[in-house]
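Exercise: predict the fold of this chain.
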Amino acid sequence: EVQLVESGGGSVQAGGSLRLSCVVSGVTLGRYTMGWFRQAPGKEREGVASINSRSITTIASYVKGRFTISKDIAKNILYLQMNSLKPEDTAMYYCAAGDRFWSREYNYVGQGTQVTVSS
């Protein structure tokens, strides 16, 4: 059984930082493109960052320069380092696996972790 379990969310003030983790079991990180997407209440889901099997990263323009995605293959953990957080970053953040990540098609998705940024 494949499981993706996120952690690391929380409440921070604007300008603060958080690091999200996604522990993956049942499949190796290198098997799929892995990524993070977010969804705020009343808004559409939007991709944030991805990293493919060759460790090539793609970062959405609205978080570029502030967010970094990485993975630890030995531990099978995906990370999202979020710096200079803004109130508009407030959302539920999900870890997902799938080679059509940016088409919003995922093979597996975690349960999400809430990020709240106050001004």
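Check your answer against the key: The chain is about 0% helix and 50% strand.
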